[in-house]
Specification:
Blueprint lengths: L7 H10 L4 H14 L6 E6 L5 H14 L4 E6 L2 H10 L16 E3 L8 H5 L5 E6 L17 E2 L4 E2 H7 L3 E6 L9 H8 L5 E6 L4 H5 L3 E5 L1 H6 L5 E6 L7 H26 L7 E6 L2 H15 L6 E4 L5 H8 L10 E4 L12 E7 L5 H9 L13 H4 E5 L4 H6 L4 H18 L48 E4 H15 L12 E12 L9 H8 L9 E11 L5 E12 L4 E3 H13 L8 H17 L9 E3 H20 L3 E12 L12 E3 L9 E3 L9 E2 L3 H13 L3 E6 L8 E3 L2 E3 L3 E5 L4 E7 L7 H20 L5 E7 H7 L3 H5 L5
Parallel strand pairs: 1-8, 1-9, 2-4, 2-7, 3-4, 7-8, 10-15, 10-16, 11-13, 11-14, 12-13, 14-15, 23-24, 30-31
Antiparallel strand pairs: 5-6, 17-22, 18-19, 20-21, 24-25, 26-29, 27-28, 29-30
Helix pairs in contact: 1-2, 1-3, 2-3, 10-11, 10-17, 18-20, 19-20, 19-21
């Protein structure tokens, strides 16, 4: 077959439908151009952790499919990445990447034996997903399924892949297959693919030297482009460095972040994203100690601390997969360098490194766990847009280490700037994308350095830069900024100066339970319950022998053998103690009044219960402690059930709510139009004089929009307030809650609840029911005599047109 040609328009179309970020779009262009010869070369894209290499892989798969390629292999190094990659390309999975026109048939080691028909179909796009270990050649000790002959395809899966003339390999986490892991690289290259495309955030030095890295997008660029969080190295100014203090500070920072994250989520109407502390330890013993300390002293709740090591249980790994879910109890993940790759979550807010960061790879991979943005984009709120790295004891070493991330970023930016200075001028479009491939490895500016913010004893002489990339801050400063960040950045819709707080009397249905008496527990019910405890249950002890037998070959075989069970010892108490325990428990429930009548009823219920259980009148019997406990629990449950089932009578009660709600909960919208501009449904308008709030939005022009204008210009109206669906102002009726359109206050102090309705809808049964409920509500409010004078005005389009903009004409004859 003829190999594919570089198609600029196709890359742009795919980038649009997959909504690729700019670096991924640019990388796809570069890769598409390099693919053109199809001569088996190996190319690498170096994209910072958190930028979305998976989306580049999805874009590349779509490009290959559109160009006629039908066989693509994705190789991954770890189980977590393997499962995530399969989910990325499986419709319906939580991690599925949407937007692609091509839906590949995913072939794995687990299903390839049943995929022969699909693999043979030249029209089907096949995506083979393998862990790299499965591609290694078998040895005497290890057999590998991909190298075994499969009768369905007539050859081994590995040989089948080698025979394909359009195979392309995408090597995720490419650095794993280089250098010391050359055997993995050989297993990939021996497939003989038309091209091998590596994706990594930390390319191997040999690959860089060999010129295989064709696109580089550094962490510094990702931070500068606001695609990831801003790392903040946090230390204590007082010099305290012990591990307990470090964990305590990290937990406090996490708590502060949670407050800000929840506030922002509420403000934008999104579900909560809960920040998690990530603790990286050097050994399993260190991790176990840190997890125990966190659980005992700082995060004592059930399941709040999750320990992940090589020996973690399936339950722990399931909890790890669900750590992003709002209902997850996990607030800290403690790991032994196990989660540096393949664990991609967006809610890591704080990182503690209780181990040396030995290389730039480890540094960026660990830091990368916390780089993803919790809400997908930067919010402008520091507590949300940053990941705190608590490094009380090693922040100076971290900065001084030339192999550490910070130095790496500095070197990369300096090198890129030198290359850029020597390169020809490159055009940059409005989105910031560069039109020349030659600049793909460099940033779009020549600014150097990082922005360090120091406390009192900070180092001197480090490069500074106006762009916010990485900060070094004292612990107290970070806490103060996080606590004030959300409130200082997000602007809310607040009442205008001098506007009143309106007290709206909301009439609500209340269910008032009747008084409970033990007389509601019948004699028959108590006796029937007691019959379940006529005898004591015998308790047995299981006995298991650890046996040993010699097998046929003379070898000793160990096993277990169950022996006859033995009765366990039971402790007994006199029936008088049983009665006392039952009486104390019933009266201690707090469900009955402390009266002589209820005390007598308590003794009656206990007497009927014990008679049902066969206790004679002389009271000389004895019960086991276990039988007593079970009987007490059963009688308690029966009384609670009777209490819950007691009758209730409905009543109505006024509950006064003050509006607008304080503190405000709605973010100030943008844009805000002048009220003199043309009407747009759902748009926000300002420049009001008599509105309680500075902005208002409307759904209908002929009713709500015109009513607002009438209220605004009426000399008889002092204030008005737009009422929104699902707010606190509503009237209860049989069909649910009724939300009107406006509340107005006239110059005499009377309140008006106002509804505008289209002529076609005015006679609708539900509209009529709401109107009748509002009229009844106004009568009840005014009859109470404590909430001022309230009127209800229901105006149709015809009523509004007839009023010709005059409030008095509108209100006359159509209000209550």
């Amino acid at each position: 077959m003829s190999w594919i040609e570089y198609d600029v328009q196709l890359v742009e179309a795919i980038s649009a439908r997959l909504d690729l970020r700019s670096p991924n779009r640019r990388a796809l262009h570069v890769v598409a151009k390099k693919l053109s010869p199809g001569d088996g070369q190996e190319w690498i894209c170096d994209l910072a952790t958190g930028v979305g290499k998976t989306y580049l892989a999805a874009g590349l798969l779509e490009y290959l499919a559109e160009s006629g390629v039908r066989n693509v292999v994705i190789v991954v190094p770890l189980d977590a990445i393997y499962e995530k990659t399969i989910a990325n390309f499986t419709p319906g999975a939580r991690k599925h990447i949407p937007g692609a026109d091509w839906e590949p048939a995913v072939v794995t080691v687990e299903n390839f034996k049943n995929s022969a028909e699909v693999m043979a179909d030249p029209n089907v796009l096949k995506l083979y997903v393998f862990k790299v270990q499965t591609l290694l050649k078998p040895t005497e000790d290890v057999r590998r399924r991909v190298h075994g002959v499969n009768e369905n395809i007539g050859d081994s899966l590995y040989a089948h892949l080698q025979s394909l003339d359009d195979l392309v390999v995408i090597a995720d986490e490419h650095h794993v297959y280089s250098g010391d892991a050359e055997k993995y690289g050989a297993a990939i290259r021996d497939l003989g693919a038309r091209a091998v495309i590596g994706l990594t955030a930390t390319p191997n030095g040999r690959d860089v030297t060999a010129g295989r890295v064709i696109f580089r997008y550094s962490l510094a660029e990702a931070i500068a482009d606001q695609l990831v969080k801003i790392p903040v190295v946090v230390y204590r100014g007082d010099g305290i460095k012990d591990e307990r203090s470090q964990l305590a500070d990290a937990c406090h920072l996490r708590d502060v972040k949670e407050t800000a994250w929840r506030a922002y989520a509420r403000a934008i109407g999104r579900g909560p994203v809960i920040p998690v502390l990530f603790v990286v330890c050097q050994t399993v013993a260190d991790a176990e100690r840190a997890a125990e300390k966190l659980s005992a002293d700082f995060l004592p709740g059930e399941g709040q601390v999750l320990l992940i090591t090589g020996g973690s249980s399936d339950a722990a790994l399931r909890a790890l997969k669900g750590v992003e879910e709002p209902e997850s109890p996990v607030r800290a993940v403690v790991s032994v360098n196990k989660l540096k790759e393949g664990w991609d979550v967006r809610n890591i807010g704080v990182i503690v490194g209780l181990r040396a960061l030995a290389s730039e790879t480890l540094t960026e991979q660990v830091l990368g766990r916390g780089l993803r943005l919790p809400f997908g984009t930067r919010t402008g709120i520091e507590a949300v847009d940053t990941v705190d790295i608590v490094a009380h004891d090693s922040y100076r070493e971290l900065l001084a280490n030339k192999k550490a991330l910070l130095q790496q970023v500095l070197e990369e930016r300096a090198q890129a700037a030198q290359e850029l200075a020597a390169a020809p001028t490159v055009e940059i479009d409005k989105s910031g994308a560069r039109s020349d491939e030659a600049t793909a490895a460099g940033p779009p500016s020549t600014q150097l350095g990082l922005n360090f913010v120091f406390g009192g004893d900070g180092d001197q002489g480090l490069p500074a830069d106006p762009s916010l990339l990485l900060k070094l801050q004292e612990y107290d400063q970070v806490v103060a900024e996080h606590e004030s960040g959300a409130a200082a950045t997000v602007k809310y819709v607040e009442p205008v100066a001098g506007a009143p707080r309106i007290r709206f009397p909301r009439l609500e249905r209340q269910a008032i339970p009747q008084k409970f008496s033990l007389r509601l527990v019948t004699e028959q019910h108590a006796r029937n319950l007691g019959r379940k405890y006529l005898t004591d249950e015998t308790v047995y002890m299981s006995r298991v022998a650890l046996d040993a037998q010699r097998g046929i070959d003379g070898e000793v075989v160990l096993g277990t053998r169950f022996l006859e069970e033995e009765k366990a010892y039971l402790e007994y108490v006199p029936i008088s103690a049983v009665k006392s325990q039952l009486e104390a428990r019933i009266l201690g429930l707090g469900m009955v009044e402390s009266t002589i009548t209820e005390y007598a009823a308590t003794r009656d219920v206990i007497g009927w219960f014990l008679e049902g259980a066969g206790v004679a009148g002389d009271g000389k019997a004895a019960w086991s402690v276990k039988r007593t406990a079970l009987a007490t629990k059963a009688l308690e449950a029966a009384i609670i059930s009777a209490y819950d089932l007691r009758a209730s009578s409905p009543t109505w009660q006024f509950n006064v709510v003050e509006i607008p709600v304080l503190p405000p909960t709605r973010i100030l919208p943008s844009p805000i139009y002048s009220r003199w501009q043309e009407f747009l449904k759902g748009a926000w308008y300002g420049e009001w004089v008599h509105s309680v709030e500075p902005v208002a939005s409307f759904d209908a022009k002929s009713t709500e929009w015109v009513l607002a204008s009438i209220l605004e210009q009426a000399s008889q109206i002092k204030w008005w307030l737009r009422v929104y669906t699902n707010g606190p102002v509503w009237i209860e009726h049989e069909g649910g809650k009724y939300f009107a359109d406006f509340i107005a206050i006239d110059v005499s102090g009377d309140h008006w609840l106002i509804e505008g309705k289209a002529d076609d809808d005015a006679s609708d049964a539900e509209v009529v029911a709401k109107r009748q409920a509002a009229m009844a509500w106004a009568q009840q409010v005014n009859s109470a005599g404590t909430y001022g004078k309230w009127h209800y005005l229901f105006a149709t389009e015809s009523d509004i047109r007839a009023a010709k903009g005059r409030w008095l004409d509108l209100a006359k004859g159509i209000s209550t």
